[in-house]
Coproporphyrinogen III oxidase (Actinoplanes teichomyceticus), 463 residues
Amino acid sequence: MRKRIAVIGGGIAGLAAAVRLRDVSPPDTEIIVYEQSGALGGKLRTGELAGLPVERGAESFLNAAGDGGDSPAVAFARRLGLGDALVHPAPQPAALVIGGRLTRVPAGTLVGVPGDLSTLDGVAVPEPDADRDTGRPLLAPGEDIAVGELVRSRYGAQVVDRLVDPMLGGVYAGRADQLSLRATMPQLARTAETEHTLRGAVRAAQALSKRTPGRPVFAAVDGGMSRLIGAAAGAARARISLGLPVRGIRRTGHRWQLTLGPAPEPQTDDVDAVILAVPAKPAARLLADVAPEAAETLGDLEYASVALAAMALPPGTPLPELSGFLVPPGEGTLVKAATFFTRKWPHLAGPDGPVIVRASLGRAGEEDRLQLSDQALLAIAHRELGELVGGSLPAAGASWIQRWGGALPQYAPGHPDRVAAVRAALPAGLALAGAAVDGVGIPVCVAGGERAADDVNSYLEAV
């Protein structure tokens, strides 16, 4: 009998699930992607600025996996026929803002955690002799603590505040003292179960990575991430339902019934399996009746809000010879990171073209600082960027603000165990994917979507 599968959520995780379902399911399987907004892509969205494609969300993804092969995102792009469209950033260094001045990011850290303290000159002063070998591993098997708790106890406050915090903030918009080590740095968590010093654990974690020398760390799609989304939608050959929210799920025998649309005029749809690829709180609402314990746990996940400010500066505007910079929270600026976009991505730069700068604004717990008009946020970003690069910037010829309210999940210690408990509590035929459960970043979301598709396909083959 022909099967029908619902994928709820049209972001990258949901689309990766739909493509995988198309690849592994019988040819007549009907796949329906429900996206309550008017467009696919979620937080992957390419905008335009001064005639150039500039990302309004994630700008790149990891190029390689831990085993040295292609990352799931690169493999996905190749599956979609976009292998020849992959581009890589210029080999430019990045900087940290220390005391209002730009200082190169030390080499050889693991998300800001150094394995060689001698590289920190000018950035942070570690606590002397704090990282002593006490004769036992740093963590017990399966133990999870905040990144900041581990690093502070071994290296001291400055290393956390000036290096680890801005590095984690650039990815998660969160603080090291609230983020789970196992969720954000799983390799370091594993090596900390056997190593007696943090330096040893960092070096052991770095040794596990089989990076190919000279291979770029990051990749993007020429033309923008929206091109990746469009290719995925085409490859899935799914029925795409936009602007029609899924408001409820209930079990009906061996199938599932979805309640769709506005409450006064509900519609229903019956399917054989469901993949939920939406943020934690909408997922919790949909699971409330069919998996109440999972819903309660999932609904507790907190999120951070951020905004992106993009500015097209006049051709030839001088900027430091960097790809961009990160700002520790202690500097007090609203700007937490900046990318010199046309320098970082040389395929977009031209001798007479605009100089594009993109700044990330706001961190977890700073939502009130974003409650300003777009023009006010742009003015603050323009002023702070000028101060941080050492002088005032010329007026932007074009600009925009992109707000992402509640966009980035904040993984508190114990998050991986909570996710495992949530998944164990799900009824058969229902799977979860997305940043809420799998992690931040395009590769992990792609891999999570594909894993959910495999789980659902295995379930349907068995029934």
